[in-house]
Amino acid sequence: MLPHILxxxxxxxxxxxxxxxxxxxxxxxxxxxxxxEAASPADLDRALRDLAHQTTPRPTAAPRxxxxxxxxxxxxxxxxRRRGGWLGRRVRGVHHR
Length: 97
Description:
Blueprint (H helix, E strand, L loop, with lengths): L1 H11 L4 E4 L6 E5 L2 E5 L2 H14 L30 H8 L5
Antiparallel strand pairs: 1-2, 2-3
């Protein structure tokens, strides 16, 4: 019965990940980056339909310029870091401020 229910949910909501939580006893879905929980498959179907009606399309990121068009970044010299940091100086008893 479980595979039949999951197949039906996948048919109705393609691209959504579904599962039944053995520990929680709840039905779950990850839809549009949101986690949805319901007590039954029918409740999950209803919740996903409600979610589809209330969500607005997310803005897409602006296209990036190709590497050839971007301005080159100036090379920075490597940073030489002291070993030990703050804790190392405290342990050795040296206090640089």
